[in-house]
Amino acid sequence: MLKCDEANHVCDKVQYKNASFWEKVKLSIHLVLCEACRKYTRNNVKLTKIIKKSHVTCLDRKCKQTMKLKLDKAIKETGTNLP
Amino acid sequence: MPNHQINPNKWIDLYADYLYNYTISRVNDGIMAQDLVQDTFLAALKSMKNFKGEANERTWLISILKRKIIDHYRKVNSNKGKAEVRITYNDDYETEGDWLEERVADPFDKTAEDTMQNDELGDAIFSCLNKLPEKQAEVFRMKSIEGLDTDVICNELNITASNLWVIIHRARTAMAACLKENWF
The domain containing residue B139 runs over which residues? Predict the structure, then answer.
């Protein structure tokens, strides 16, 4: 039987399709018995759905670093009157 | 009158993703969107002395970005005549004989309402993300939004897998709590 923190960990993995079949079985059994973890799972699933629905994307680290370099350079050129 | 502060050193961390999403839902081209966002930051820096602190930083940046997007469409449209000559009409039976303009989806037209909904949701997601500690936000962004694999993130940030899952757990709990009021 999983402990609550283990169950939540499996639940997190499920959100990214990183959980194995047996982990999922064990999670289901735990959820039948545990109200607190059911609540966590409910919110967790909603969060996954909402991120998916929003279609948000983001810039990768490299791209942001390039942007930062360019902006930093421009900031230096502008002078020192920054807060 | 509330006086908002301005600090360009933090712009990329705080607003780059938000501006990028705003742009990409309007120009449908990742590279072009990146360029527009970069241009926006540079233009904003130049006109920083015009920032009067009446709006918050992000609203101000968006207003500059909007003008950049409009300029982008102006440029595209001024090339339209030339494009029309070069176009090869495909043999799709349904669209045969249509003018080019009718084939190009108008990004401001029927998707306007979807765009608005998604702007608000994206807005909520990014402002919640900005409230998280930096490390949590970073890991959450890479795992949940970029959809990177665990080992890729661990390599890049130099953390262990169990470390990653602890961070993810905290981030998800905080994000759920933050988004709960308006979006669950």
Answer: 132-184
Q: Is the residue at B98 inside a domain?
A: yes
C-beta separation of B150 from B143 below 8 A = yes
In a domain, B117, yes or no: no
Split at pLDDT 50, 70, 90, the class of B86 is: very low
DSSP 8-state assignment for residue A55: T
pLDDT, tens digit (0-9, with 9 covering 90-100), for B149-180: 999 999 999 999 999 999 999 999 999 999 98
Residues in A whose CB is inside 8 Å of some CB of B read 8-9, 12-13, 15-16, 18, 40, 43-44, 46-48, 50-51, 53-61, 63-64, 67-68, 70-72, 74-75, 78, 82-83
Residue B5 C-alpha from the chain's centroid: 22
- B3: pLDDT confidence band, cut at 50, 70 and 90? low
| Domain tally, chain B | 2
